[in-house]
Specification:
By secondary structure, the chain is mainly beta. Helix content is about 5%, strand content about 55%. The radius of gyration is 31 Å and the shape is elongated. Pfam families: CarbopepD_reg_2, Plug, TonB_dep_Rec_b-barrel.
Length: about 950
């Protein structure tokens, strides 16, 4: 049987080799500027065989019978060129590289430009095909079809990518900490306080040119990744002068026109800003010890400086609103070609959800409820985004660019929680009133230089700033004995729980502020060896990267406590309890205490330097090997003031060599086999190192850092087969394997009560899987409907295992680092946190020449660990949900476009379930047909989302000759 199969395989290969008539390929460039002529036509005279040049000026004529032909090359406003006696041999490829010269006169209403288009589906596929590392991507053209609002919505359509909390990216089942994000080739600062992550909802989709996700490492890329490197490229310069405006109105089921409870914030909240009265007065003593040594009346005097803004108000939720203004201009200053692209976005959106929250006893009995609540959660989010890019083309060999991106986001969140502490016998009513502001600014100046045909050099210098503020997050808990009645026979009133010492669960006000500044400098060079017109010339790439990051973080927490018996006050309305006359520090009243610890504020410095060298080695015309070496030096320091003395908490200096190999074998002009190996790493973030304790209201858990964290080291192996049937079609299969040494994972501390998480180094872990991507068009079909149809789909199967080892090191409840023997505490092996076992994305796109488009999109991810458990507290999983989106759009006279979008049509519940059986699966008790052994911890529906958008181009687009 094996012999027969081998004979059959060899016969098929032989038939394929000899049956192929032959082909012609080559490139077409401008004779003067040497830029590719995108769309130039190539035709074999006397036949119907022809093609158009792609974004790199390359073309291919397939299935050409053997013989000699005359080739006709044409392009608008260029002189036609005829190439006679082009010989094609059976099974071989003939290469033609030619140039066209401009005609003497230019035509009106025609744009002839050598700038490379990068934002189309064809362009992205072409770029991925030519990259040495294994990569996938999505174009602005596809994003526009999908009507995705931001980068988070768009990137989930990339193979192996899923989204957590509607803004954080996971690649190949690995959390955001294992992914690097670059905007215009500069590493972005983290947008979050508690984790290393970038919030993709900060980048509106209409400023994106393309997004490329690198799955394998290379010397040119940052070494701090394991899942992938996401490169977001913003729009560069326009081909035409234009001004466009767009307005969107949105309706969300279960939110829009509903009556909700919210709290007031002074200042320009609709711009994501707040007023001075929401900030903590500078009059407060800096240290809690100094503050708490004051008398109760003195502390109450400070408490009266905190505004009484606790009262809630009812309001009807208005429809969501979004506005966008896009402008593009090109002009000349002397001999310099100048262009500007400006985009301004504003949105005001709403989200209401009724959240079911349950905590269980987790003893021998299933569904033994400990606490049960229903949250009425309402959030209003405002966002302003500005993109402002300038490009200066001094000559064909020197370009200068200045790119600036600004985002300001404000989120006002109100949660009213009602329910029971079942075991303790109390009815509970909790309130959380929170305002969060985030600002991100990145500005970059870059230059591209060409030194002849062989050498190119580019440099980028940039500054980034991230700010995050939580001014006056108020939390209060009311309770009463379940079923208790007063003398009138009515239910007893709720009473505020005011503990003796401040704690984050009960009554208090929290303030935090983060400022992070990043300076970067990158220089990259490329030198071509041999003839630069070769299809695949050998190249050497080299470069350096430097980054300086400074972070300052501070938090303050104040709790209210009583003087004597203050039950009369504490039973009042939430809007009247904290009036100045009640917060007086007198008998029967309230005062405040400072619950802040010295470690609640810290400063960090990170110096990161890297250098790399890589080169190509061609083995004939089909095989190419890229060998790279990158060295990274990192110095991470963390400090905090303890009793007014600056103390060093962390000082990690580490140099790590990072080799990489990327091998491509061209089976044919349309088929590639790729193999890749790379060594990468994963560093701890400031927040994961800082021994600061943060309370998560939704999880009811403390989160604290670990100063003993080590840098994780990762070995990556990838293999990919890719097939390009046409310029906009793709079929690929990718397999990968990753081995982690000292991976950083979350760890649930063994505590007496409550939940407390930290970060630890596990011993090792593995992650492996397979990915499939298909993009299929039907341009050759005789049916017009099919000619306009494109099918896109990708799926991933992934498996991971974490081996914690016998001991892990982390902080205890006092903050001191100890070694935990895991015997009897937790499972020593489990899947990696946040890792999905499967991901599926599919889409059907229809685009008619008349300007009518529609698409249907589907997405699902597999059950993944949301919160790591132990033997006392089961692991909590985020459960799969099917998401279907529908988008329809129509253009009218190329000036007006109307769009209808329906997102999350099925509106399936978001579920977080705990694995009571500890079998790694969420299901039913095998001993009972009705009772579920695994319970939902949180459950809610976001609501289907309907949007109508009108986009209009003002005036007529100005065509630039």
């Amino acid at each position: 049987m094996k012999k027969n199969l081998l004979t059959l395989l060899l016969s098929l290969l032989a038939f394929t080799a000899f049956a192929d008539p032959g082909s012609i390929r080559g490139s077409i460039k401008d004779a003067k500027s040497k830029e590719p002529l995108i769309g130039a036509s190539v035709l074999i005279e006397g036949t119907q065989i022809g093609a158009a040049a792609d974004v790199d000026g390359n073309f291919e004529l397939a299935n050409v019978p053997a013989g000699a032909y005359k080739i006709i090359v044409t392009f608008v406003s260029y002189q036609t060129k005829e190439i006679p006696n082009v010989r094609v041999e059976s099974g071989n490829t003939t290469v033609i590289d030619t140039e066209l010269s401009e005609e003497g006169t230019a035509l009106q209403e025609v744009v002839v430009r050598g700038a490379r288009a990068t934002n189309t589906e064809v362009a992205v596929i072409s770029e991925i095909k030519q990259l040495k590392p294994i990569a996938v991507g999505i174009s602005a053209q596809q994003i526009q079809k999908s009507q995705d609002r931001d980068a988070a919505s768009a990137i989930r359509r990339v193979p192996g990518v899923s989204i957590v909390d509607n803004r954080f990216v996971m690649i190949r089942g690995l959390g955001s900490r294992y992914n690097s994000v670059l905007i215009n080739d500069v590493i972005t600062p983290s947008s979050e306080v508690d984790t290393r992550s970038f919030s993709f909802d900060l980048v509106p989709s209409n400023i994106i040119d393309r997004m490329i996700v690198y799955k394998s490492g290379s010397a040119e890329s940052p070494g701090d990744f394991a899942g992938g490197i996401i490169k977001i490229y913003t729009k560069r310069r326009p081909d035409q002068n234009f001004t466009e405006g767009a307005a969107t109105i949105g309706y969300r089921a279960n939110t829009t026109f509903q009556n909700v409870q919210t709290h007031s914030r002074s200042g320009a909240n609709w711009l994501g800003l707040w007023n001075a009265d929401q900030q903590l007065s500078t009059a407060f003593p800096k240290r809690s010890a100094d503050f708490n040594s004051l008398s109760a009346p003195e502390r109450a005097t400070y408490g009266q400086l905190l505004p009484n803004t606790w009262a809630l108000k009812s309001q009807t939720v208005n429809p969501d609103m979004r506005f966008a203004l896009n402008m593009g201009r090109r002009f000349e200053i002397g001999n310099v070609d100048v262009s500007n692209l400006t985009n301004i976005n504003y949105s005001l959106t709403n989200q209401f959800a009724e959240v079911g929250l349950k905590l269980y006893q987790n003893g021998l009995t299933a569904n033994d409820v400990f606490e049960s609540y229903t949250d009425q959660s309402y959030a209003r989010q405002s966002r302003i985004g500005v993109l402002h890019n300038w490009t200066f083309r001094f000559s064909p060999v020197f370009n200068l660019e200045w790119k600036t991106l600004f985002n300001q986001l404000g989120n006002t969140e109100t949660v009213v929680r009602e329910g029971q502490r079942v075991v303790d016998g109390y009815d509970v009513r909790n309130y959380s009133q929170r305002f969060e502001n985030r600002s991100i600014v990145t500005t970059q100046v870059s230059g591209d230089h060409k030194f002849g045909d062989l050498t190119k050099l580019n440099w980028i210098t940039g500054f980034g700033y991230t700010g995050r503020w939580e001014p006056d997050w108020k939390r209060v808990r009311f309770q009463r004995v379940t079923g208790a009645t007063g003398s009138d026979g009515q239910l007893a009133p709720y009473q505020v729980v005011a503990p003796i010492e401040p704690n984050p669960i009960d009554l208090g006000r929290f303030y935090s502020k983060l400022n992070e500044r990043v300076l970067t400098l990158s220089v990259n060079g490329e030198h071509t060896l041999g003839n630069p017109t070769d299809r695949e010339p050998n190249r050497i790439r080299f470069g350096v990267y430097g980054e300086r990051k400074d972070r300052d973080y501070s938090a303050r927490f104040y709790g209210y406590n009583t003087i004597g018996n203050a039950s009369g006050i504490l039973r009042g309305d939430i809007g009247t309890i904290f009036t100045p006359q009640n917060v007086a520090g007198q008998e029967g009243g309230l005062t405040i205490k400072d619950g802040t610890k010295d470690l609640d504020s810290y400063s960090g410095i990170n110096n990161y330097y890297a250098a790399y060298l890589s080169g190509d080695m061609n083995f004939g015309s089909k095989a190419i090997l890229t060998v790279g070496f990158r060295g990274e030096y990192n110095n991470q320091q963390l400090h905090s003031y303890i009793v007014n003395e600056r103390k060093e908490l962390v000082n990690n200096k580490l140099f790590i060599p990072l080799p990489s190999l990327n091998f491509t074998y061209k089976v044919s002009e349309k088929q590639n086999l790729r193999l890749a190996f790379s060594s990468t790493l994963n560093r701890a973030e400031f927040r994961e190192l800082a021994p600061f304790t943060y309370f998560d209201f939704n999880l009811q858990a403390d989160i604290r850092g670990n100063t003993a964290l080590k840098t994780a080291k990762i070995q990556n192996i990838d293999a990919k087969w890719e097939f390009y049937p046409s310029t906009n079609e793709l079929i690929s299969v990718t397999g990968f394997y990753k081995y982690f040494k000292n991976p950083i994972e979350t760890f649930l501390l063994p505590t007496g009560n409550g939940l407390a998480y930290t970060f630890i180094n596990a011993n090792n872990s593995t992650n492996y899987g397979v990915e499939l991507e298909i993009r299929k068009g039907f341009q050759e079909s005789t049916i017009p409907f099919l000619q306009n149809l494109t099918l896109v789909g990708n799926a991933s199967l992934i498996k991971s295992t974490v081996n914690l080892g016998q001991f892990v090191e982390g902080p205890d409840l006092s903050g001191a680092n100890v070694k935990y023997d895991l015997t009897g505490i937790t499972d020593k092996k489990r899947p990696m946190a946040n890792q999905s076992p499967y991901l599926i994305n599919t889409g059907i796109y229809y685009a008619a020449p008349s300007g009518f488009q529609w698409n249907v999109l589907y997405n699902i991810f597999g059950q993944r660990i949301f919160a790591v458990g132990n033997l006392e507290n089961p692991t909590v999983y985020e459960m799969p949900r099917n998401v279907v989106d529908l988008n329809i759009s129509k253009k009218f006279k190329n000036q007006l476009e109307l769009r209808l979008g329906i997102q999350d049509i099925l509106n399936q519940p978001v579920r977080f379930s705990q694995d009571f059986n500890r079998d790694g699966k969420i299901g039913r008790d095998v001993t009972s047909k009705s009772a579920s052994a695994d319970q939902d911890i949180r459950r809610f529906r976001r609501g289907s989302y309907f949007t109508i958008t009108a986009a209009y181009t003002f005036g007529k687009r100005t065509v630039i000759p």
